[in-house]
Amino acid sequence: PSDSIFPLSTDDKQVFINCKAKGNPPPHYRWKVDGREINTESDPNYSLVEGNLLINNPHVINHGGVYQCIATNTFGTVVSREAKVQFAFLQNFSKKSRNMVSVREGQAVVLLCGPPPHYGEIKYSWVFNGQRSFLQQDARRFISQRTGNLYIAKVEASDAGNYTCAVRNMMTNATVLSSPTLWWCGGMVSILSSPLLAPSYLAH
């Protein structure tokens, strides 16, 4: 077996971890996870298919770990290399309201994304005023792919509107949104955010 990352959103809800050993007579297989032997007869989540380990309805905590395949026949036993198995996932944003921030025209502002718990490669984008296309970066606007934060230099009146941070898991294609609202008031721009669930048109 080899190190693997599996998306938890797979339709069949099954994961295969491969193992193949040659021998005469043919070997019998068993598996360990984190040093603990797996009992496929008592654990309904695990089963063997020609030596390969099948995980049914995998869970990110219960079934992630270091797996090892063990093959045995009358002449001896061989043990595979360790394989780290992880699961890609993306949770929803917290529903807790965010604090309001005020910015004066001409100043710089940072809109915080604060991504929810996740694993696997993710991509950050922002949506302006609910448009179906993502906000384009330019000389004044920059999206950090490390934090997801949106940086706007020299705030203008035209920047007023609704800003939504979109977080996409590149393995599962799941997308969730947190929706900061930015509005203009005199010489001041104020920011208030409250999280929302992603609409279907962004989950692609």
Instruction: Note the overall shape.
Output: rod-shaped
Distance between the termini: 31 Å
- Helix/strand order, N-terminal first: EEEEEEEEEEEEEEEEEE
Task: Write down the oligomeric state.
Answer: single chain
The beta-strand count equals: 18
Number of H/I helices: 0
Structural class: mainly beta
Query: Which consecutive residue ranges, at least 5 long each, have pLDDT under 50?
Result: 192-204
The gyration radius over C-alpha positions equals 24 Å
How many strands, which pairing sense, and closed or not: the largest β-sheet?
7 strands, mixed
Strand percent estimate? over 45%
CATH topology of the largest domain: Immunoglobulin-like
Percent of residues in helices: under 10%
What is the CATH H-level superfamily of the largest domain?
A: Immunoglobulins
For this structure, what is the CATH class of the largest domain?
Answer: Mainly Beta
What is the count of distinct domains?
A: 2
Let me know the average pLDDT: 82
